[in-house]
Automatic annotation (TrEMBL):
PANTHER family documented for this protein: 4,5-DOPA DIOXYGENASE EXTRADIOL-LIKE PROTEIN (PTHR30096), 4-HYDROXYPHENYLACETATE CATABOLISM PROTEIN (PTHR30096:SF9)
Keywords: Oxidoreductase
InterPro entries xrefs: HPCD, Xdiol_dOase_suB
Every Extradiol ring-cleavage dioxygenase class III enzyme subunit B domain range: 7-278
UniProt gene name: hpcB
Name the UniProt record assigns to this protein: 3,4-dihydroxyphenylacetate 2,3-dioxygenase
Pfam families listed in its UniProt record: LigB
Lineage: superkingdom: Bacteria
Length: 280
C-alpha cells in the first residue's frame, strides 16, 4: 500500500534561480534554497519515490489534469519572466502508473479528470524550479498536477482526497508539494524592480503572517474556513487551489499535524513566500 510520506507548501519564485545563477543577485534567496535542502534531506530520509507537484503555473480552465508521461526531459525558459529564469535543463522519470491509479479513483468518484502523455507536453517552473533543488540526489519520479483556475475550493478538497486514495492504492512512497505563494499581489510594473524583496501591501503581509500563525498553532479548521476569502482578498495564486489540493490530500479538517518552517516568510516581487513542511 502506498503512502504520503512528505507534504509541504513551497515557493517557486524565479528570483531563486537568479540567486543561484546570476552574480549580481548571488545569495538573495539563499534561505529558500536552504529550505529546499531540508526538504531534499527529508525526502531522502523518508524514501520518497515520487514527487507530486500541484503546479500553479500549469494553469487549466476545465477539468482536472495530470501529466502522465513516463519521462520529462528538456530545457526551460520562462515565457513570463525570461530575464529571470532561463537555461534550466531537466531530466526526470515520470510516474504513469501512479497517475492512472489516481485517475481511476477520480473516475470512480464522478470527477472529470484526464491524464496526458503526449511527447510535446512540457513542464512549468512551478514544478521545475523546486525539483531542480529538492530532487537532486533523490532521483525520484515526478508527477506534475495542473491547477484549475476556475475550480472551487470544494472541488479541490475532493480532488486532493482522491489523490490520497490513489496513492494508497499504489505501491509508492509519495511527497505532495503545493507549489504556490501565500498572498500573490504583484508589485505594479513601474515599481517592480524596487519591489524585488517586498510584499505588496501591509494587509497582505499581515494576512500571510496570520495564516502562518494559525498553522503553527494547529488551527486547521479556522484556516480552512478562512481560505476562500483569503484566496480572493489576497489575490491567491491560481485561487490558492494548490493549497486546497494539499489539505484535501492531508484530510482537510481532520488533519491533526504540525508544521516546520524551513524557509521563513519573505517577500518577492510583491508576493508572500515560504517553504513549510507539514507532518504526515
Amino acid at each position: 500500500m502506498g503512502q504520503i510520506v512528505q507534504a509541504a507548501k513551497i515557493t517557486h519564485v524565479p528570483s531563486i534561480w537568479m540567486s543561484h545563477t546570476m552574480k549580481k543577485y548571488k545569495g538573495i534567496r539563499q534561505p529558500a534554497i536552504d529550505g529546499y535542502a531540508k526538504l531534499r534531506q527529508d525526502a531522502i530520509d523518508r524514501g520518497v519515490e515520487t514527487f507530486i507537484v500541484f503546479d500553479t503555473h500549469w494553469i487549466t480552465n476545465q477539468g482536472f489534469h495530470l501529466n502522465a508521461k513516463d519521462h520529462h526531459k528538456g530545457r526551460f525558459i520562462s515565457h513570463e519572466l525570461p530575464h529571470m529564469l532561463a537555461d534550466m535543463e531537466f531530466d526526470y522519470r515520470g510516474d504513469s502508473a501512479l497517475a492512472h491509479s489516481i485517475l481511476n479513483v477520480l473516475e470512480e468518484r464522478g470527477e472529470r479528470a484526464m491524464g496526458h502523455a503526449q511527447p510535446d507536453l512540457g513542464m512549468e517552473y512551478g514544478t521545475l524550479l523546486p525539483m531542480h533543488f529538492i530532487n537532486e540526489g533523490v532521483n525520484a519520479r515526478v508527477l506534475p498536477v495542473a491547477v484549475n483556475q476556475f475550480s472551487s475550493i470544494e472541488e479541490n478538497r475532493r480532488w486532493g482526497a482522491a489523490i490520497a486514495e490513489g496513492i494508497r492504492r499504489s505501491d509508492r512512497k509519495v511527497s505532495v508539494l503545493a507549489s504556490g505563494s501565500l498572498s500573490h499581489d504583484f508589485t505594479p510594473n513601474e515599481r517592480s524592480v524596487d519591489g524585488l524583496n517586498s510584499v505588496n501591501g501591509e494587509f497582505n503581509r499581515q494576512m500571510d503572517l496570520r495564516v502562518l500563525d494559525l498553522w503553527q498553532n494547529g488551527k486547521w479548521a479556522e484556516f480552512l474556513d478562512l481560505l476562500p476569502d483569503y484566496a480572493v482578498k489576497c489575490t491567491g495564486e491560481c485561487a490558492m487551489n494548490d493549497t486546497a489540493l494539499l489539505f484535501g490530500a492531508l484530510g482537510w479538517k481532520e488533519y491533526e499535524g504540525r508544521i516546520d518552517i524551513y524557509t521563513p516568510y519573505f517577500g518577492s516581487s510583491g508576493t508572500g513566500q515560504a517553504n513549510i513542511s507539514f507532518s504526515v
